[in-house]
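FORM 7B: Structural annotation worksheet

SECTION A. Query
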Amino acid sequence: MTNTQFGEECDIVAVLTPKPGKLDRVAELLTKLTACVKKNEPGVLSFHLYKDFDRETGQEELVLVEKYVNKEAYDLHAELPDFQAMHATFRSEELMAKPILIKSVKPLNKLPVLATFYNRSTFLLPYSNFNTEPPAKSIVATMNIRTTVEAFCADFANGTHPTTILDSRFTSNPEIYEYGPSWARSRLPYLGRSWTGRRSSPASSSEEDTTCDAYFDVLGQTLFFEPDNREPTSPPDQFLVSTSNGSDDAVMVKLTSTVGSNATGKKWVETFVFLFGKFDAQGRIGKLEIWSDSLSAWVNSE
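SECTION B. Predicted structure
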């Protein structure tokens, strides 16, 4: 079975709505599909899974994107015993709150696996490949991470207060480091310093404060942000997720914002690269590393 036999690539987008408390079980059953995929690899290009929620009801959903060399390949694999057994289990254990919804079956020249926060359809987490079969626990952890990172990006876009971001998206003892030359600290004091932990109380702030709360304080005193409403341009492999070992997971995201200097009022368009890591079991962020154009910030702050 080759691309010449099947022709144009296509993707299948299916939305699964598990009953409350059944999401992990559904993820476990979906994991077993990877064994089927590995045994019947021809015609199957990739599976992607991400966690979402219904905008009207608030119910948790699993969105499965399957990429095949064409629709005929999907039809062939959908008739395999492994696929049929999974659906039979869905029915016998009454796992679903509603029937599985197939949202689209369409030709696709390229399936993007990129981190963007303006276009929901391109924010996907790869959860399987043809060399390894990850445990269901890893899939659920990956979905938790995806949810947290997407929420962080939304917070960034909406100008959410830093304390709220730290409280809801980070672990209790996070680390933040924004790369930049030490000589730039006279104008950009948040650069090149390790910021660790949380402030015990607002009154405990001081010049020696090196908590993550202080990072956001210093950053806010130096710069202001006007997140870009345009959809960002995402290079290949911009979005990376590793789920081999919870604390070693990593997510890289590129975000664009209009930045301004509080000292001069000058503005410029800035691109940031955020590397998230050290996630806990709930997917909260334990470490954030940031790269940006510190030279532009330095020049515009003069």
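SECTION C. Observations
Helices lie at 3-6, 23-39, 71-78, 81-92, 136-158, 162-169, 212-222, 294-300. The chain is about 30% helix and 25% strand.

SECTION D. Sign-off
Analyst initials: ____
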